[in-house]
TrEMBL record:
<feature type="transmembrane region" description="Helical">
    <location>
        <begin position="141"/>
        <end position="161"/>
    </location>
</feature>
<dbReference type="InterPro" id="IPR036259">
    <property type="entry name" value="MFS_trans_sf"/>
</dbReference>
<protein>
    <submittedName>
        <fullName>MFS transporter</fullName>
    </submittedName>
</protein>
<dbReference type="InterPro" id="IPR020846">
    <property type="entry name" value="MFS_dom"/>
</dbReference>
<feature type="transmembrane region" description="Helical">
    <location>
        <begin position="360"/>
        <end position="384"/>
    </location>
</feature>
<keyword id="KW-0472">Membrane</keyword>
<feature type="transmembrane region" description="Helical">
    <location>
        <begin position="390"/>
        <end position="411"/>
    </location>
</feature>
<feature type="transmembrane region" description="Helical">
    <location>
        <begin position="85"/>
        <end position="103"/>
    </location>
</feature>
<feature type="transmembrane region" description="Helical">
    <location>
        <begin position="109"/>
        <end position="129"/>
    </location>
</feature>
<feature type="transmembrane region" description="Helical">
    <location>
        <begin position="301"/>
        <end position="320"/>
    </location>
</feature>
<dbReference type="Pfam" id="PF07690">
    <property type="entry name" value="MFS_1"/>
</dbReference>
<feature type="domain" description="Major facilitator superfamily (MFS) profile">
    <location>
        <begin position="18"/>
        <end position="416"/>
    </location>
</feature>
<dbReference type="InterPro" id="IPR011701">
    <property type="entry name" value="MFS"/>
</dbReference>
<feature type="transmembrane region" description="Helical">
    <location>
        <begin position="326"/>
        <end position="353"/>
    </location>
</feature>
<keyword id="KW-0812">Transmembrane</keyword>
<feature type="transmembrane region" description="Helical">
    <location>
        <begin position="173"/>
        <end position="192"/>
    </location>
</feature>
<keyword id="KW-1133">Transmembrane helix</keyword>
Length: 435
């Protein structure tokens, strides 16, 4: 394995891959998730439609991305990472182009179907897989850095769309986003590498001697791991998948409804906007913190720590809704945990089920999240409209977060994977001994 570096030395090639994935994530995750809420207002006005009709576009986007993620692993196996990224460039930017010319509501739905599929082919599975494949010892922080890209993506969208609306032609914004997305994804297709082994390297820049020193790193070096069929038969897989699904209701449900709650408590929309910005900023620190904690104690404990804070934050938000200082303080607790799931669950999938078939397995693990995202947002709004109000709605969400935390706490590394890693270690040690 010429070209490998000692693991104590800065692994330049790996961090370059993380940096490229970060830029791609600004587009497929930042643009994809944050543009809808801002574009929703001008789209509703332009179409003369009901807000609920336009809001359906987000559910369509989430579900399209979720179900398309199921095939990303197979797509990579058949046409390689580059092929998947090139398809993403055409489809994701194509969805924005449709919005740039749309005149009827069905075109909005069509745009978000196309965009959702494009997001999946260059999004969650790939952007989680690259740092997980390229790193072992520093896996947590590498994944966290990639997912912190959602914040700059939200800032770009937050500046571009209002500027286009103010100029009198809001459809300029999705067309500009389409152009940026196409260029970034096209370049990313030729620069990103799915696994370090493809270019004669090992995760973390390890040498074969270092990989042979312990079973886990030897397993990563040899790329061992359960197949999708094997994973589906394990409790490890199901605890991870159920925990990931539950958090879709527990976090995204209240998150998308916080502005309504805050305005309903007598504050203006500017305060609501500052509240959401505070949550987003806290989320960046939360993602990075989750990465550091994962590298010390693993994704299971990291997730339990952070999402216990989310439960506390939600409960406090219920009781301090009329106190602006305490409300913002509570938002930090909730925000720190927000989206840490993307870091923790992708790391858990690679660590506890193995990296060899990460794409195929993580596509199924991820599926429950967008489904529950699509359900959680309208569910919270519906409960808030009953006698339970937002107190009951957020309380129920806190229960979902707690249930997700319990499921993640139950996760353990699969025994079959442990045996695979030990066998890989023996083979590697034997190979080195004969050299």
């Amino acid at each position: 394995m010429s070209g490998t570096k000692k693991s104590g030395v800065f692994f330049t090639q790996g961090w370059i891959q993380v940096a490229i994935a970060f830029v791609v994530a600004i587009v497929t995750q930042g643009f994809g998730l944050y543009s809808f809420s801002i574009l929703k207002v001008p789209m509703t006005e332009a179409l003369g439609a009901q807000p609920a009709e336009v809001a359906l576009g987000f559910s369509i986007y989430a579900l399209s991305a979720g179900f398309a993620s199921l095939i990303v692993g197979d797509v990579i196996n058949k046409i390689k990472l580059r092929g998947s990224m090139l398809c993403s460039a055409v489809l994701f930017s194509g969805g924005f182009l449709i919005l740039g010319f749309m005149t009827e509501i069905w075109q909005v739905y069509a745009a978000y179907v196309v965009m959702g599929i494009g997001s999946a082919l260059g999004g969650m599975v790939i952007l989680s897989g690259i740092p997980n494949n390229w790193f072992n010892k520093r896996r947590g922080i590498a994944v966290a850095i990639v997912w912190s890209a959602m914040f700059p993506g939200s800032l770009i969208v937050g500046q571009l769309v209002p500027a286009a609306v103010a100029s009198g032609n809001w459809q300029t914004a999705p067309m500009v986003l389409a152009g940026i997305a196409f260029v970034v994804l096209l370049v990313g297709a030729f620069l990103l590498k799915w696994q370090p082994q493809e270019v004669g390297l090992l995760p973390d820049g390890m040498s074969e001697e270092e990989a042979a020193a312990q079973a886990e790193t030897a397993g990563v070096a040899k790329l061992v791991g359960l197949t999708r069929g094997e994973a589906l038969k394990t409790s490890t897989f199901w605890f991870i998948a159920i925990a990931f699904a539950l958090i879709g209701i527990g976090e995204q449900g209240p998150f998308q409804n916080f502005p309504t709650y805050i305005v309903g408590n007598g504050f203006d929309l500017a305060i609501a906007g500052a509240f959401m910005t505070t949550i987003s900023l806290a989320g960046v620190f939360g993602k990075l913190a989750s990465g550091v904690i994962i590298d010390f104690v693993g994704p299971r404990i990291a997730y339990c720590i952070l999402n216990s804070l989310a439960v506390i934050g939600l409960i406090l938000i219920i009781f301090v809704g009329d106190n602006i200082v305490l409300l913002f303080a509570s938002s930090i607790l909730f925000g720190v945990a927000l989206s840490s799931s993307a870091v923790c669950f992708s790391s858990a999938t690679a660590m506890y089920l193995g990296p060899k078939h990460f794409g195929a397995i993580y596509g199924i693990v991820f599926l429950g999240k967008p489904i529950c995202d699509a359900v959680g947002v309208p569910l919270v709004a519906a409960i808030a409209g009953t006698s339970l109000g937002f107190t009951g709605a957020f309380g129920i969400c806190a229960c979902f977060v707690a249930a997700s935390t319990v499921c993640m706490f139950m996760v353990r590394k699969n025994k079959k994977l442990v045996a695979m890693e030990e066998e890989a270690a023996k083979e590697l040690q034997a190979k080195i001994a004969t050299q």
